[in-house]
Amino acid sequence: MKTKIIQMMEDNPLIAAINSKRSFEKALTCESDIIFVLYGDVCSIVDIVDQLKAAGKIVMVDVDLIDGLATKETAVDYLKRATKADGIISSKSILLRAANARGLFTVHRFFLIDSKSFHNLPKQLGTSKADVVEVLPGAMPKVLSWVQEVVDVPIIASGLVCDKELVMTALQAGAMAISTTNMDVWEI
């Protein structure tokens, strides 16, 4: 299944990231095969995932952004048992490692704000063993090329990728896919 998800990202590199009821509604019918869920709580996440799955989508839940979930392995257990999510997104290596052990697809989210966070990336990725790396902000082609040199997994560019030019630049710089909450970009 993990190989299939990576192939889907390569075939359709625009990932719809949803952060509201409005974007959720649009994601149900958008052309993106993969949806990143960046909102919800323990009461609503099951329904959000179920509806997206019913629409034929591959669903990744950002465990760090779901209200009511702790930063513990039990959060991963909950998502695995209570939802049909295909994977998780997190900036926390321990959660990603737990998700991998449970057969979920894993997206390690990195906020690259300075050289220290960049140089820490390989170590953190080595701990998490994530399937892909998500780099924020993703509108930094030079940094994306640096990341490509130090990791051996595919890269997703995210954050501030808000028009076709930035999408193309990120893909040319080495990103395999783009994740965006900008619904206009979903239509590119």
- Specify the overall morphology: globular
* Helix fraction bin: 40-55%
Strands, count: 8
The largest sheet, given as strand count, sense and whether it forms a barrel, is: 8 strands, parallel, barrel
Mean pLDDT: 96
Rg result: 15 Å
What's the total helix number? 8
Distance between the termini: 27 Å
Low-pLDDT runs of 5+ residues are none
Q: What order do the strands of the largest sheet run in, or round the barrel if closed?
A: 1-2-3-4-5-6-7-8
Order of helices and strands: HEHEHEHEHEHEHEHE
Helical/strand content category = alpha/beta
Strand content: 15-25%
Pfam families: G3P_antiterm
Function: Regulates expression of the glpD operon. In the presence of glycerol 3-phosphate (G3P) causes antitermination of transcription of glpD at the inverted repeat of the leader region to enhance its transcription. Binds and stabilizes glpD leader mRNA.
Keywords: Glycerol metabolism, RNA-binding, Transcription, Transcription regulation
Protein name: Glycerol uptake operon antiterminator regulatory protein
Descriptors:
single chain; 188 residues; alpha/beta; eight-stranded parallel barrel; 8 strands; globular
What does this structure look like?
There is one protein chain. This protein has helices at residues 2-11, 21-27, 45-54, 73-82, 93-101, 115-128, 141-150, 164-172, and strands at residues 14-18, 34-37, 58-62, 87-90, 105-111, 132-136, 155-158, 177-180. It is globular and about 40 Å long. The longest helix is centred in the middle third of the chain and has 14 residues, at 115-128. Strands 1-2-3-4-5-6-7-8 form an eight-stranded parallel barrel, surrounded by eight helices. By secondary structure, it is α/β, with parallel strands linked by helices. The mean pLDDT is 96. The two termini are 27 Å apart.
